């Protein structure tokens, strides 16, 4: 139980293939993509009733992804039991035996699958299941492809001297990607459990600061907004740590965050990841400010409103992704919802993988006023976790409408009583804000349901009006 990838032939093969793809460039990657897509499509057609029906009428052998109809989160979730290729997995079973139990975060489901829950950019909740191969690819690809940006060869000797202590600053309370990853590492051995610590950003900032001061992490993983918050504490002198490396993901790294982080921590290397629970090893940032997509394992097709390809140098409407490693829950031309732009020229960093810019996921850090008149900053993803993990919530949006008011738009599940769900949400959010020092903030229920932003066409979750 809880073992990481066994160091077997398949691991060595993945490492070898990953290095070979880097060296071989486009031709090698295209060949690997064709082989892997053919295998994935064949498996989906055989073992997933959903894809069998979707793909009937297509040629027997498919190597060109453009033949395949795109899929959406909503559709896949509506057909969950027919979507997965292992009949032992059912949505009802997951919701009954696994997802509600937070002591199981990071533990393999049925002894062999890793499970994430997510809302993502569309606000639509999803349950994502990864098989062993997909998990292995995530670990191997993420590590190998980040080695240059992290300057691993310089980092290693210092880490050896100062010790590996990794603090993971994320919202807990659900089977969220980053937390599942960290907890699965912790479960491998008591040694690793001491080396990795998950600190929930749902806790009051003073508590986080105290624990970080005591733990003295050398490595940090966090949302950009959480890292910026920690940076502010360091600048204010309450926090005194000197981390060597930080990995961020899940949100846009704004210039403002970046300035705060650089001002707070001298010599800290920050590497950004761009990924989603469905494609967890998707892309890693380089020192030139681009993300390089791991296209040998994840197909990446920027498209317009009609799902037609858009050329490099143009911002897409959305992007279709395919996880070539995961056979248990095939994600093939899946609408990820992000607007992206592929670079037209090779990246100066030397990577031969496509370089992309991603339009930020548009959440705001909210600022409220404490009863004493102090400014209290609330991380959007922490607030999101509090609302989303309330039983009966389907989707939500939270808008900071003033220094002491928060408006919440709520979509409840069909079998839930909307008023009861609302009361619980209001109670939980009020308690959460109070714990952070923003007691007395009025949490108001919006008349309108959650809606897509008319201007950007994106689903924003938390912002300030
Ligand atoms: Zn680059």
* Rg estimate, integer Å: 22 Å
- Secondary-structure-based class equals alpha/beta
| Portion in strands | 15-25%
Largest sheet, in brief, is: 9 strands, mixed
Across the major sheet, the strand order is: 4-3-5-6-7-8-9-14-13
Which percent range fits the helix content? 25-40%
Question: What does the overall shape look like?
Answer: globular
Number of β-strand runs: 20
Mean pLDDT: 91
Bound molecules: zinc ion
Distance between the termini: 47 Å
Low-confidence blocks of residues? 1-6
Number of helices: 15
General description of the model:
It is a single chain. By secondary structure, the protein is an alpha/beta fold. 36% of the residues lie in helices and 22% in strands. The protein has 15 helices and 20 strands. The strands form five sheets. The protein has a nine-stranded mixed sheet, with helices on both faces. Strand 8 (279-285) and strand 9 (291-293) form a beta hairpin. Helix 1 (9-24) crosses helix 2 (26-47) and helix 1 (9-24) packs across helix 7. Residues 1-6 have low confidence and may be disordered. The structure holds zinc ion. Zinc ion (ZN) is lined by residues 286, 288, 290, 292, 347, 349, 351, 355.
